[in-house]
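Its record is retained below.
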Amino acid sequence: MPSSLRKGVVKGRRPARVLVSWQILLICSRGLGFQFAVVKTVIFASRLLECSACREGWCVLKTRAVLFDMGGTLVFATCSESETFRRILRSVGITRTKRDIEEALSKTKKELDAEGFAEKFGKIPREEFWVRRDSCVLKHLGIEDQKGELARVLDRRWFDFANFKAYSDTQRTLERLRETGLRTGLVSNGYEEEIRSVLSKAGLSTKMFDVVVGADTVHERKPHRDIFEYALRKLRVRPEETIFVGDQLDTDYKGAEDAGIRSLLILREKARAIPNGTRIIAGLQEIFNHL
C-alpha cells in the first residue's frame, strides 16, 4: 500500500467502506465525459482502499490525535526529589541525610497545603513558586537562608542534578503515531520550562509533539478540563477524535474523560486497585489497539 495512503490508517482491522455521494457529482456535472470520469475515479478509489488495504490488514482510523501525560507515562525519574535536593546541598558544602530531607519535604507540604499554596502552582511564575517552597524546606532542615539565595540556587541547578529517562517504548511509539498521520500532544502538570528540561534530560524533544501544554499555559492543572480543551483547540480536533494516555486515575484518566476524551490508563508498575470498566494498557504499543 503506498505510504501516502497509509496516513490515517492502522493495521489490525478491515477498512470501513468508503461512502461517496457520487450521484450528486453526476447531477451537478453536465458533460457525459466528465460523468464517466467521476464514476471511474470513485470506483477506483473504493476498490483501492477496500482491496489493497484489506490485503495488508489496514483500516480507516476514527482517531485523529493522541495526548500524553509525561511523568510515569513517557519518562521516569532516576533520582528521587530528596536525593536531588541532597546532592545540590552537598555541592555547596551542606550535608544533610536523605531521611532528614524527606522529613523536611513532608513538613513543608503540610505547612504550605494548610496555606493553600499548592493552588498557586501554574498561576504564579515558576521561580517564585519553587523558591518559596524550597525556602520552607530549608527552614525545616535548620538551614539559614533569610535572603533566599540558597533557595534560588536550588531552583537554578535542579536539572543539573535531577535525571530522567524515557521508557523503552516511548520514542518508537511517538514516531509510529506521527508516521500514521496522527497528531500528538503533551499535557503535563509541570511548568512549560520544566517540561522542556525533563524531555531534554530524557533524550526527547518538544518537536515530537504538535502541542505542549503545562500548568502555566492555561493557569490550571489536570484534572481541570481547561487544560485538556486548550490542547484540543490547538490541535483542531474534537474530544471524540482524541485519546489521552496517562498513569494517574484521577488527574489523567478521569480528567480527560470528563472533558469528553477517550482515556487509557497505563500501568507500568504492579497492578493497582482499578475500577471495573477502566481501559488499561501495560505499554504504549497497546495504544494502536484502541485507535
About this structure: Residues 223 and 254 are 7 Å apart (CA to CA).
